[in-house]
Amino acid sequence: MILTTKDTIDQTKIFDQVKDDSCGAIVSFIGLVRDHNSKEKVEGIFYEAYDEMVEEILKNIEKEVFNNWNIKKFIAVHRTGYLQVGEISVMVAVSSEHRKEAFEACSYGIENIKKRCPIWKKEKTQFGNDWIEGVKINE
Amino acid sequence: MNLSECTTLKIRLFGILREKMESDNLLISIHDTSISLKELRKYLKELYPSLGLNEINFVFAVNKVICNEDMNVKPLDEIAIIPPISGG
After folding, report:
1. Which partner for A106 in A30, A84, A94, B66 could form a disulfide, CB atoms 3.0-4.6 Å apart?
2. Which CATH superfamily is domain A2-127 in?
3. What is the ipTM of this complex?
4. pLDDT at A103 over 70
């Protein structure tokens, strides 16, 4: 399962979906909205995505993960819209027979989402709303 | 070249660019059936100085794929300006 969603990301549901009786390991990464940046307090973050392109890129990342690691299931979900501090912005979960493959595939998944998916965020602080200066897309 | 020979390109905007233009799209008329992304970059900078395209390191996506700017685009292509990303 790979997608962007406006709905709250339910980590328990994703855990149940990625779990498989043939697997001895699940590794997940959960990205959260932090209450500060390098200078000030953050009240929330607005995420915007080019949804159709993100889903194409997530499909590519999913293919690469299955080609490179012996894993059972791969789930990647990115939230869009306004999120409050503490809410989950992104989750990647991988199941495999043994932990090494799951750790590596999960790390590859989140690193590539950050480098390749056209998603933007705008932080809300007491001083206003600012788009975060990002990095040039790498796809 | 008269106006009837113009074709229109629709360019999707996101993030800070969408907000600056207060619109999800730009409609650009070109005097040909296609234009290279390199030419489009130059054209957009001249036509929309308020977008601040000189200040950001943007790329183009065509039909959801990041493309080399030697590529030509046509009216039916889905063109998007991709400013620096910050997901996660």
Report:
1. A94
2. Molybdopterin biosynthesis MoaE subunit (3.90.1170.40)
3. 0.91
4. yes
Q: Do A89 and B84 touch (CB under 8 A)?
A: no
Segments making up each domain of chain A, as ranges: 2-127
Q: Which CATH architecture has domain B3-82?
A: Roll (3.10)
Whether the pLDDT of residue B5 is over 80: the answer is no
Least Cα distance to B77 among B22, B42, B30 occurs for B30
> In chain A, which residues have their Cβ closer than 8 Å to the Cβ of B64?
50, 52-53, 56
Cβ pair B82:A117 closer than 8 A: no
Task: Provide the pLDDT for residue B1.
Answer: 43
Angle at A41 between CA B83 and CA A89, to 5 degrees: 50
Cα of A138 to nearest chain B Cα, Å: 9
**What tens digit of pLDDT does each residue of A19-34 get?**
999 999 999 999 999 9
Nearest residue, CB atoms, B88 vs list A110, A131, A136: A110
| CB within 8 Å: A120 and B19 | no
* One-letter identity of residue B79: I
Q: How many CB atoms lie within 10 A of CB B39?
A: 15
